[in-house]
Amino acid sequence: MHEWDFAATLADMDLLLLGLWNTIQVFVLALAFGVPLGLGLALGRMSRTPVLSQLCSFVIEFFRTTPPLVQLFWFFFALPILISVQMTPFVASVLTFSIQSSAFFAEIFRGGINSIDKGQWEAAKAIGMTRKASLRRIILPQAVKRMIPAFAERSIELLKTTTLISTVSYADLMFQANELASKTFRPLEVYTVVAVMYFFLILVFSQITILLEYRLAKSGEGTMR
Amino acid sequence: MNHNWNFASVFAYWEVLAVGLWGTLVLFVICTGLGLSGGLIMGMLRYSKSRWVNYPARLYVEVFRNTPVLVQIIWFFFALPVLTGIEVTPFLAAILGITLNTIAFSAEVFRGGIQSIEREQWEAGKAIGMSYGQTMRRVILPQALKRMLPPLTSRGIEVFKMSTLASVVAYPETLQQAKLIASYEYNPIEAYTVVALIFFVVLLPMVQLTYVLERRFGKSDA
């Protein structure tokens, strides 16, 4: 039977915490770029210009149907050759996950906007608002409320997907764990600690979501799905 | 932007890619089969009224839903052998990680589907003398399955994409084989583009299928 010994892992906890910090950085940046980009893609897909609509649909479907790991490899190994720029693991990660999550966010935005009653558009038009103004002032504020649970769920997915960046040697939590495991020869303890760290990070996040959903349900705002 | 695209250098290794595709397919079939059937059982355990059944099932679901699959695969590959003394192959680690993850996610789909069936159906089943198991099998599940079809198809798509993670432990699936080609021929652009296109072509019809299923079964009981 294996003798558990967490001493070596805990002694190098600062390495893991640094990895956690790097993970959170990529996560936050990918969210910050991914959400506006997702809104843009959603509006593009719903646009009445066929070319724009088809282009946005293609981008969304392409990034939804290809594995994130393949995308990451493409952006890290292939893109730099194609446009001859230096690509760091950090830039490649943020780029990949911004675009990848934007495709999923776009579908959430589209679902949310479509879920708003047609009468709202007509009412806005009746008091003389343009399409743009009614979208910004009437439709989106209502739609965003309904989208929050789906958003949160997608963000959790994103957080879990960031572990992939360890494969291009970005020093995220997973990468630091690999380093520490080979340094201490204690893979069982290291990976168990890391799994627990991810578990609590995501648990906190999902509990906030549940709380939010509960409050929205209470305030009479139906949740999507 | 003056790159000379040379896809011939990828297709010259089509046998290598074919091995990868086969590997992906094997992972997909095993993990979806075991994952969904395990998910059905886990979903029913989650639905149980007994705390002794319900709580452990819930713990399982939360643990596997709240940790990244990559961590799970790596844990099974590097940590499990230390714990049990059994040698874990890349194949086994990938199967374990992806299947256990799929069980957890599909369990929630099954539970939601079962819960969505009205109470009266249970009562009606009881009224004509059916046991719990019979009502579940003959009355509840057939109705619930229809509603669960769209989310379950999405799960299948997720599993197909997740199979690329097996490359991290060097299991020869599509991405791993492309990596190999890229390192022989120094053609990462073409190799990874081909892989992306393969996944796109295979999964796009499946995604379209979920849209159709959602429209047909999503809301009404057609």
Structure write-up:
Chain A has 225 residues and is mainly alpha-helical. Chain A has a single domain (7-218), classed as MetI-like (MetI-like fold, Orthogonal Bundle), CATH 1.10.3720. Chain A has helices at residues 7-11, 13-46, 50-65, 68-83, 89-114, 118-126, 131-161, 173-184, 187-218. In chain A, helix 2 (13-46) packs antiparallel against helix 3 and helix 8 (173-184) runs antiparallel to helix 9. In chain A, 40% of the residues are buried. With 222 residues, chain B is mostly helical. Chain B has a single domain (8-217), classed as MetI-like (MetI-like fold, Orthogonal Bundle). Chain B is 80% helix and 0% strand. Chain B has helices at residues 8-11, 14-47, 51-65, 69-84, 90-115, 119-127, 132-162, 174-185, 188-217. The chains are: A mainly alpha (225), B mainly alpha (222). The interface between A and B is large, with 40 and 40 residues. Chain B: Part of the binding-protein-dependent transport system for glutamine; probably responsible for the translocation of the substrate across the membrane. Chain B: Its main location: membrane. Chain B: Residues 21-210 form the ABC transmembrane type-1 domain. Chain B: The chain crosses the membrane at residues 20-42, 191-213.
Output the keywords.
heterodimer, A: 225 residues, mainly alpha, MetI-like fold, 9 helices, 0% strand, B: 222 residues, 80% helix, AA_ABC_transptr_permease_3TM (chain B), membrane (chain B), transmembrane transporter activity (chain B), MetI-like (chain B)
Give the helices and strands, then pairings.
The complex is a heterodimer of chains A (225) and B (222).
Chain A lengths: L6 H5 L1 H34 L3 H16 L2 H16 L5 H26 L3 H9 L4 H31 L11 H12 L2 H32 L7
Helix pairs in contact in A: 2-3, 2-5, 2-8, 3-5, 4-5, 5-7, 6-7, 7-9, 8-9
Chain B lengths: L7 H4 L2 H34 L3 H15 L3 H16 L5 H26 L3 H9 L4 H31 L11 H12 L2 H30 L5
Helix pairs in contact in B: 2-3, 2-5, 2-7, 2-8, 3-5, 4-5, 5-7, 6-7, 7-9, 8-9
Family (chain A): Belongs to the binding-protein-dependent transport system permease family. HisMQ subfamily.
GO molecular function (chain A): transmembrane transporter activity
Membrane topology (chain A): Multi-pass membrane protein
